[in-house]
Amino acid sequence: VSREAFWCYVRFPDEEYERRLARLREAMAAEAVDAVVLSDDRLTWYFTGFGDVGPIGSPARPRVLCVPAVGEPAFFVHRSTELCVQEMSAVADVRSYRPLGPAPVAEIVAFLRERGCRRVGVELGAQLRPGMMVEDIDGLRAAVPEPVDASRAVWAVRMVKSEAEIERIRAACRITDRAYERALPSLRAGMTEHAVAGLLRRTLGEEGADDAWAWVASGRGQYDRIDGVVRERTLARGDLVFVDMGACVGGYWADFSRACVIGRATPGQLRMQELVAEVTGIGVATLVAGRTAGEAAGLVGAAMNERGLEFSSRAERYGHGLGLAVTERPDVWQSDGTLIRPGMVLTMEPGTWTEEGMFHCEQNVLVTETGNEVLSLSSWRLTEVMAG
Amino acid sequence: VSREAFWCYVRFPDEEYERRLARLREAMAAEAVDAVVLSDDRLTWYFTGFGDVGPIGSPARPRVLCVPAVGEPAFFVHRSTELCVQEMSAVADVRSYRPLGPAPVAEIVAFLRERGCRRVGVELGAQLRPGMMVEDIDGLRAAVPEPVDASRAVWAVRMVKSEAEIERIRAACRITDRAYERALPSLRAGMTEHAVAGLLRRTLGEEGADDAWAWVASGRGQYDRIDGVVRERTLARGDLVFVDMGACVGGYWADFSRACVIGRATPGQLRMQELVAEVTGIGVATLVAGRTAGEAAGLVGAAMNERGLEFSSRAERYGHGLGLAVTERPDVWQSDGTLIRPGMVLTMEPGTWTEEGMFHCEQNVLVTETGNEVLSLSSWRLTEVMAG
Known about the structure:
The structure is a homodimer. By secondary structure, chain A is α+β, with helices and mostly antiparallel strands.
């Protein structure tokens, strides 16, 4: 049994991490950055191979990866976890610290000094959240000659997925499709949104998800409830039931939405779902290499306007990146100038709501050299659950 | 149906939030802080009532709660989620912003100025992690007269649990006990650690957990694997199987560890488990009001030394707070001067490992006016799973 086989559901082969670090160094060169210091749990996992499907460890023991432009990186971890990290990390230079709470800022600064790093990138912007305290980030910035934002370099690498990553996202989408199709016919009037979400999560697990999320909004005349909380509201006959859900496979997520009606759908509901699906299809076609995320968003917005559809979800984006997080960079929105590249996995989800329910059929899309491929295959049609 | 009944598994009655805010203002007065600005998802949920069992929403849309010492608080949220937050939030003044990514720093600063706040607490230290970007924290600090750390005030409130919170933690511990006792007899030689963790999580769900975590380390001669990753390692006859697991009920966690042997335990294993359980019992007795966490840790360390037990887990703490996170402040360790108070829920887990396995029986303990109460009731004995 090879070392990697022990963690085969989360750990990629060493070569994957070598390629990621090489790509990071290229992105750092483009930004003229001498080193980056990363502590977000998803980022240290991404670059070292140490991590799990969900964040592990305690905020009392931050893990900090220092990647200099020249020479080997060093991974600073609490001594309680040192041996586990050594087993699993693709970064060989694992250094341990002892106090509980703060990151080992003095040791990190000494390492950067030793390597002659002046311009040092830390997690400041672009939706990054460091896994060490702001106090530690302050200490680090005070001690290096020129602290800068690491986010451009980091996202340039993470936004473009490798074959191995795409395989996991593809598996997550397949499981999500299957779980959705299997669970849907069990919905009944009298169930609560909370119970439906539980059923979806359990079914995702049964279909092979390592982790799962599911979110449900039901009823007519509901305003957009995205980012709301699943309620104890009881489903009634005639309700439109919107579900947003995703499997996690080896740490990579699907993000998929569909809807059904308990009983017969009204002509208005059927028409609106068809219209939103049509715009979603147009939106999917905009996600091609060479265009910016903002340009794609402009085209989606125009397609909605032409059809008199209001983008009432007010989400400020028609889609987003997908991968180690359910939502990550880039944002498919006018303000985002990110160039779309082959290997990006993006969602497309222009939505609207009316008095008759929420209409939204989120697709997961892989950008290829020649166009793109839709990874979420379940029908966008409004299913009528007749037994309910 | 009342408003609260819709989210009865996460939302407390309004009075709970009024008491929390009143206690926060007391803690702010003790620190001479004019306002605190909070964005960690667990903290905004704790003080406003808007939130779910796990973090919800996207890092692209931070939610920021401003609590001035005088006058009503304001809750800044992205406009896509404004109506949902208004439904659920106990803080009535919900203000929305539109751009994706950054927090609405200018609006927050204007609010603080309007209220005459000079000394403003933000999430800088003590294991806090803001839900907005460091760039936003920087912008906020640059614009207020005297930025300070909010962590002391925040933890002074959150560390002491209310009756309603204790009820949830008690339920989480009960479910964890039941799931552990029900799943354990199903363990068999030939199962992987990964499969055992999945079984434990599923059983926690079946017993009523809203969310669940489980972690497994097996085999003899294993060094401490806390914070390691569950492996595909196959259980063999004679293995000691250590499990660390917990149910989540309405957002509140249990954190519990026990162990079993596949087949017959050796006399050495039985003796070591008994010794660790004895020290754990002594440790539980140290967790009483009026003592500091550091003093309690000193007593546990002395009890280990007397028995020649090395604290080989190197975790740098014998226990920690428990509640909205599986591990939170305080740390039961010499360096933590936090005064133990009635209403705190703490873990006690002095552990060790030898060539024969990992020995660790984590207890969840409620500190009361007159002593304490152990909430995790399953036997600490090393179960022998004979069918395996």
